[in-house]
Amino acid sequence: MKLLTREALLSFRRTPLLSALSITTIAFSLFTVGLFGLVAINLRQALRGLEERVEIVAYVLRGTPAEAIAVATQDIVAFPEVQDVSYISEEEALQRARTELIEFRDAYRDLQVNPLPASVEVRLKDGYRDAATVERVAQRLKGFGFIDDVRYGREWIQKLDYLRNLTGLVGLVIGLAFAAVAVVIIGVTIRLTILQRAREISIMRLVGATNWFIRGPFLLEGALKGLLGGLLSLVLCYAGYILFRDKSGGTLSGLVFFRPEHMVVIIIFGVLLGLGGSLVSVGRHLRHV
Amino acid sequence: MIRFANVYKAYPNGALALKDVTFHVSKGEFVFLTGHSGAGKSTIMKLLFAEQKPSAGEVRVSGYNVTALKPDEVPRLRRRLGIVFQDFRLLEDRSAAENIAFALEVTGARTDTIAARVMRVLTQVGLSAKSRAYPKELSGGEQQRVAIARALVNDPAILLADEPTGNLDERATRGVFQLLRDINAGGTVVVMATHDLDLVRQTSYRIIEMRDGSVVFDSEVDEAAAEAQ
């Protein structure tokens, strides 16, 4: 084990430029992925506030008996997607209009007849606030005979969905592309190390070193580079985050950074990249030495 | 210790490097493998340390069946062999002692035994005073002694030497050859491939002569036959 570590570290000393190149490549790959991750995390954070406001409003036909609505409300609450239902009577609607729509306060005050219909407001559970579910629940509400019309912010719910999917997809694609680049570069550096150490490796074979013993230092080297690259990428991400937050002059002060578990995932990802790159390269090139 | 039975080795292009080679080497023997370049000496050596496998026939070395050797058994076989080449194959960035220690380290020897074992073999090859010298500071003969010390450090049952004196002057050749004889006198089987016929004629060791991939003369078999007549 001591020898394994020594050999792996020795390779950093022997090829400092190549090692630095591998580490920086991994760091920049993960940095890009990390930045995207930060954007996604902050976007999701922002969307969560919007999502909580996703609500379906079903207007009730005038003259519907209160008991019928009460029974229907029980049914609606029982939908698996539904978090809560509230009934807004005609009077409550008018009251709300008077307090919320200040500009029309006078108009509402002078009314002889209340023009506002009663409504049932339905909020959905977390995880069900996407366009498809909202549409489905709305259709089901329309099935009740006393429901006149159903309204929900259809367009912006769809935009929300689109934005969410796009963030995930772009992040995934960029992440995969950079991971591939990192694996290739690590593979190349390991290959150069193998060629540089061909003589040593052939002597190791002659005196009876096992294959895993020969591979060990290369794999450890790759994993170490991945680890360092991962750490470096976090430092870069943090620098980027601080810079962005402070430059915004307070408007983005609510930005969040990775949670500890995210950082662990990034570092593990770096180690896996390093290990994967060296494993592929060692498997392919050690045979020819 | 070594058994070749009807061994054939074909190159990928179909040409035969070895044709129906059969011989046995017993405990304690010293065997010269002679013949021109391309006669098949090196192929026999490569089969002996499982660098290659025979196309047909059986090769057995120190209890291992090379013909059916699994990849993970190759290192185990090689730990029972000492291998020496014409070009020494030393690591230039390591001292004589470090080159020998390397062979122990990479086979997982106990760290606290390494220094003593290295010193023992360096003394055996007469280089205890030059343990810290780097290969480029040593003469060709001395470098080959370091290589032999490295081959001996794992106490091999068989020492394979492929043209060990090919790069050496006459004086160094005599020294290295005497060293191999001493090693053999200690009980280790020595198989030495060489085309230095002067060296071969100096002694009465067994000679196996190769030509175009076949054994054309085996002193043990042919002399026994001659005596029988």
Q: How would you describe this structure to a colleague?
A:
The complex is a heterodimer of chains A (289) and B (229). A four-stranded antiparallel β-sheet of chain A has the order 2-3-1-4. Chain A has 289 residues and is α+β, with helices and mostly antiparallel strands. Chain A is elongated, with a radius of gyration of 30 Å. Chain A has helices at 2-14, 16-51, 66-77, 90-100, 105-109, 131-142, 154-196, 198-206, 211-247, 260-285, and strands at 55-60, 82-88, 119-124, 147-151. In chain A, helix 1 packs across helix 2, helix 1 (2-14) crosses helix 9 and helix 9 runs antiparallel to helix 10. The relative contact order of chain A is 0.18. Chain A has two domains: 2-49 and 159-288, no CATH class; 55-152, 2-Layer Sandwich (Alpha-Beta Plaits), CATH 3.30.70. Chain B has a six-stranded mixed β-sheet with strand order 6-7-8-3-9-10, sandwiched between helices. The radius of gyration of chain B is 18 Å and the shape is globular. Chain B has helices at 41-48, 74-78, 96-105, 111-124, 140-152, 170-185, 197-202, 219-228; strands at 2-10, 16-25, 30-34, 56-61, 64-65, 81-85, 158-162, 189-193, 206-211, 214-218. Chain B is 36% helix and 25% strand. Chain B has eight helices and ten strands. Chain B is an alpha/beta fold and 229 residues long. The chains are: A alpha+beta (289), B alpha/beta (229).
